[in-house]
Design brief:
Layout: H1 2-11, E1 16-21, H2 24-37, E2 41-46, H3 53-67, E3 71-77, H4 85-92, E4 97-102, H5 112-121, H6 123-126, E5 134-137, E6 141-145, E7 166-170, H7 173-185, E8 190-192, H8 204-209, H9 212-219, H10 222-231, H11 236-241, E9 248-250, H12 261-265
Parallel strand pairs: 2-3, 3-4
Antiparallel strand pairs: 1-7, 1-9, 2-5, 4-8, 5-6, 6-7
Helix pairs in contact: 2-3, 3-9
Length: about 290
């Protein structure tokens, strides 16, 4: 991917390329193509990855990338993962995949009233959630924006859909996007799932569970059929890299919250709670993607 982008980056030295993604299904297709094109690394950060068709398809794409030797890192907010440890641990034990949960709850069971009780007892800590959303491949190209991973974000919802936006970006800005991911990934609040109650999954378990996305699609395939119908003959990433779908090239910077924003606000940690350039310090940041 870096080789395919080299000519465009050389032509626009010092600038980064952008394209707005207002159409949900196109934004999902780009994620799938990017996962398929990944050669070295794949960093994924979301508040929520649902267990529906698009969520299962994306998980399957991540596992296929890992099978090729791509290093896959997945960072999820634990509030969006409650009651789904069995599914997300599928990723945790898979070769070449690392999974961390941001600010996790201590209780890992599936009884909602215990989950609520813990929240009420420790609301000051647990009320701080991670809403960042990004998808970065090989440190060369990335998608950021407002969409979590779920059918209703990508025009596949059965009952309702969200109107939302993403931006795909290439060039120097991707380094800053990757730095924001690393800031959260390396934060003390990002806990490897194997450090929680059940420990690290065995190698056999994720290999068996990794086939679940294929079986799940047999029973819930309406949005998948719609996706395939829309995708037939469309390759948005190839068109973009091949110059058939133009990028807007401009100067830019990434603004993001510190993963430990409370410490910034009370002065325990360097940074500012107002907008600030990450080039002046990795802890600085501002508005988050909700």
């Amino acid at each position: 991917m870096g080789q395919q982008l080299a000519a465009a980056k050389a032509e626009h030295a010092g600038l980064s390329g952008f394209k707005l993604l207002p159409v949900g299904i196109d934004s999902f297709l780009l994620r799938m193509e990017m996962a398929e094109a990944a050669g070295r690394t794949l960093d994924v950060q979301y508040f929520l990855i649902q267990s529906d068709d698009t969520g299962q398809l994306l998980i399957e794409a991540l596992l296929k990338a890992a099978d090729r030797g791509v290093r896959v890192r997945v960072l999820l907010d634990d509030a969006g993962s409650f009651g789904r440890d069995a599914q997300i641990r599928t990723l945790a034990g898979y070769p070449n995949v690392e999974l961390r949960l941001f600010n996790p709850f201590a209780y890992r069971g599936e009884l909602p009233f215990l989950h609520v009780a813990e929240y009420l007892a420790d609301a000051t800590r647990l009320n701080y959630r991670m809403h960042n959303k990004l998808f970065v491949v090989d440190n060369e190209i990335g998608i950021v924006g407002g969409r979590n991973v779920g059918d209703e974000y990508f025009q596949g919802g059965r009952d309702f859909e969200f109107g939302d936006y993403d931006i795909i970006a290439a060039g120097p800005i991707v380094n800053q996007i990757s730095n924001s991911f690393d800031a959260f990934w390396n934060s003390p609040m990002a806990i490897p799932i194997e450090a929680l109650a059940e420990g690290k999954p065995t190698a056999q378990r994720p290999r068996r569970l990794s086939r679940r996305p294929r079986r799940a699609s047999c029973t819930h395939d309406r949005s998948r059929r719609a996706l395939h119908a829309h995708a037939r003959g469309r390759e948005p990433l190839a068109a973009m890299l091949g110059g058939k779908s133009s990028l807007v090239w401009a100067k830019a910077e990434v603004i993001y919250d510190s993963p430990e924003k409370a410490k910034v606000q009370d002065g325990e940690q360097r940074g500012r709670s107002a907008a600030a350039s990450p080039r002046r310090g990795g802890e600085q940041g501002a508005s988050r993607s909700c």
